[in-house]
């Protein structure tokens, strides 16, 4: 890879990272006004079916397109790339039709499996998205494989914007027209295929524009024989690399899917009434947007290192690979620990500010521990993926999902939604433990070098105690009315104090290297102030 190509790859990676960041922020933030409008029970209805949408979008957005872009990049000629895309489109079309048929025609069976037969029309509403997967996947994979990131980035942001708009309109109509929560859920989930269709149109339009600038395109091929990857090879690689990448990208969504099938049923089995169980599940589901926001903070700074990692592997530059991988792991741990500690300490105020009350603070605090584990798993996964450790990744995922399923059945009936939070954290911990075996030996020792873990733990502990003492003192003496404005003031004060203490600790104990500081926004300014 020459310098120009490397620069193009890096710019594209930054563009996709920015688009993903915008999409994740939108995906996390809309849930707050949505929950405020439809209540805990309405939120429960939406979140029960959301994992089905989430899996479909992960396949179409970040799972298979990334895998397909790798296959496209391996082809030597434009004709080989286009013929590969054609074959992938055919395979995905068969797969998507089967998946759509299963979800649409067995929606009543899926709803009963979740313990709520009234979810059937909502499940059918989201099933239409899967018919768009072949278009979304092949076009995104082709553009990314040929280093054209703009169509994917634009389609991703537009898709999320339209989806959020439709969902909020559904919440508004719920109150205006006095819909029941299941009618609202059906309307809200129609956002999946509406937004997917809009993204498909953008991508197809980009393909047509490309056709106008080239003789050979995805839409028009000549009959000249070109050596292309066989269907057998494609299927083999899809069932190993493709599925492993897609499912691991959807890790948190798969855990949510297990909750959809076990949590509500477990609560009712334990003797809780149907309405109370729905309310409890809705409160538990508040944790999902908070985890998304926490992981944005912890991973946004490290995502730009992933293309450098892949480049180092392809060029067989072991030293560059280890240095980039070490930085990614250290920065992920640093900011995920900060986000986790901050959310745990400030949870009463954040919960009241966003959702209007302080119900479920204990449940949500345990749930927030998932940020640290999931963020570190994401970094380790990127490292292992670049080295093609697909079977270890798949094995770790299966073990984690089995752990979640078993733990939910054991814990929910005894401990309620706290049991579900514990099960999620335990399953992520198991996955992290297993995939760590595949890391290079030097990387395994990275977190123990120069007492890194000890320093981060001490800084986080001091930050947490300081924030807790200051916010509790201010709450007792000033902001003690218990309303949302007070919660906003206390949250803001806690964030400012927490960031200040944490940054001071990082600088005082020299946790990050100068190179790592310079890769952060405002890192250069922070270092200059420290020198002064």
Percent of sequence in beta strands: under 5%
Mean pLDDT: 84
Helix content: over 70%
Number of helices: 24
Q: What overall geometry do the principal axes of the alpha carbons give? A: globular
Structural class: mainly alpha
List low-pLDDT spans: 215-225
Describe this structure in words.
With 532 residues, the protein is mainly α. Helix content is 81%, strand content 0%. The chain is built from 24 helices and no strands. It has helices at 3-29, 31-74, 78-105, 107-113, 120-127, 133-145, 150-176, 181-189, 191-213, 231-249, 251-269, 274-284, 287-299, 306-314, 318-355, 361-367, 370-386, 390-415, 417-435, 441-444, 452-477, 484-508, 514-518, 523-531. The two termini are 41 Å apart. The model is unreliable at 215-225 (pLDDT under 50).
């Amino acid at each position: 890879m020459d310098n120009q190509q490397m620069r193009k790859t890096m710019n594209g990676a930054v563009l996709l990272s920015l688009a993903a960041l915008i999409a994740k922020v939108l995906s996390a933030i809309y849930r707050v006004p949505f929950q405020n409008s439809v209540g805990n029970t309405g939120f429960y209805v939406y979140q029960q079916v959301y994992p089905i949408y989430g899996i479909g979008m992960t396949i179409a957005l970040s799972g298979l397109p990334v895998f397909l872009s790798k296959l496209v990049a391996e082809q030597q000629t434009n004709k080989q790339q286009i013929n590969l895309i054609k074959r992938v489109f055919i395979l995905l079309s068969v797969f998507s039709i089967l998946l759509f048929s299963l979800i649409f025609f067995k929606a009543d069976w899926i709803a009963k499996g979740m313990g709520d037969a009234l979810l059937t029309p909502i499940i059918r509403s989201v099933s239409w998205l899967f018919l768009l997967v072949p278009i979304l996947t092949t076009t995104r994979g082709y553009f990314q494989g040929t280093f054209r990131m703009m169509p994917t980035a634009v389609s991703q942001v537009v898709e999320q914007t339209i989806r959020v708009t439709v969902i909020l309109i559904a919440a508004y109509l719920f109150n205006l027209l006095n819909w029941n929560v299941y009618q609202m859920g059906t309307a809200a989930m129609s956002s999946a295929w509406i937004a997917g269709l809009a993204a498909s149109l953008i991508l197809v339009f980009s393909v047509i524009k490309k056709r106008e600038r080239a003789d050979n395109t995805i839409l028009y091929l000549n009959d000249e024989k070109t050596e292309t990857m066989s269907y057998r090879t494609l299927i083999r690689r899809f069932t190993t690399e493709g599925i492993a990448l897609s499912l691991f990208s959807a890790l948190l969504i798969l855990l949510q899917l297990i909750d959809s099938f076990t949590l509500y049923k477990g609560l009712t089995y334990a003797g809780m009434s149907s309405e109370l169980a729905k309310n409890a599940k809705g409160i538990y589901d508040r944790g999902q947007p908070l985890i998304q926001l926490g992981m944005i903070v912890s991973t946004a700074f490290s995502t730009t290192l992933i293309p450098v990692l892949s480049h180092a592997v392809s060029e067989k530059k072991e030293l560059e690979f280890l240095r980039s991988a070490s930085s990614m792991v250290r920065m992920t741990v640093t900011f995920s620990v900060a986000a986790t500690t901050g959310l745990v300490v400030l949870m009463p105020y954040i919960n009241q500010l966003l959702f209007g009350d302080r119900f479920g603070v204990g449940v949500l605090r345990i749930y927030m521990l998932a940020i640290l584990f999931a963020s570190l798993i994401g970094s380790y996964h990127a490292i292992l993926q670049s080295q093609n450790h697909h079977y270890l990744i798949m094995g770790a995922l299966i073990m984690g999902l089995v752990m979640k399923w078993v733990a939910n059945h054991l814990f929910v009936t005894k401990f309620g939604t706290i049991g579900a939070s514990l099960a999620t954290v335990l399953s992520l911990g198991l996955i992290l433990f297993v995939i760590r075996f595949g890391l290079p030996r030097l990387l395994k020792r990275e977190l123990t070098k120069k007492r890194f873990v000890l320093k981060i733990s001490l800084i986080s502990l001091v930050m947490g105690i300081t924030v807790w003492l200051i916010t509790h003192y201010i709450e007792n003496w000033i902001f003690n009315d218990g309303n949302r404005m007070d919660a906003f003031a206390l949250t803001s004060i806690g964030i400012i104090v927490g960031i200040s203490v944490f940054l001071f600790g990082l600088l005082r104990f020299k946790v990050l290297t100068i190179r790592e500081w310079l890769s952060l926004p405002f890192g250069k300014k922070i270092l200059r102030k420290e020198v002064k």
